[in-house]
Amino acid sequence: MLNRALLTTAGIHVFYILLRVALFRRSFTTRSLLLYTLLSTPASLIQVWFERSGRPQYEQSGEVQRPGENLEAAGLTEWMWDALYWTYGCIVLAAVVGDMAWWLWVRGRFRALICRGTEN
Fold this sequence. Notes:
With about 120 residues, the chain is mainly α. The protein has four helices and two strands; from the N terminus they run ααββαα. A hairpin with a 5-residue loop joins β1 and β2. About 10% of the residues are buried.
């Protein structure tokens, strides 16, 4: 699961950079780079957290020192996966249609916070 998420993350970021720099060079501005960096940072931090907490750690003898956390758990972990997938979609959409797609990221994260606060 972690390897797939890591490869997906790398592939999506490479897709964005190649498409925006190679194909849509005229519309790739400093503002575009700033939006991309700012709004993809939370997903990158989530990815790092998944890597640190989800992978088991081994001693030099090969014994498990600390097993990895369950990354399929409900609650916060589930919300973090949702945030990661939502960001993937927004990065791909921003690569294809431009900077206006980042509004979906803002709207989606705001709505997710509001909806989580009203659940019983």
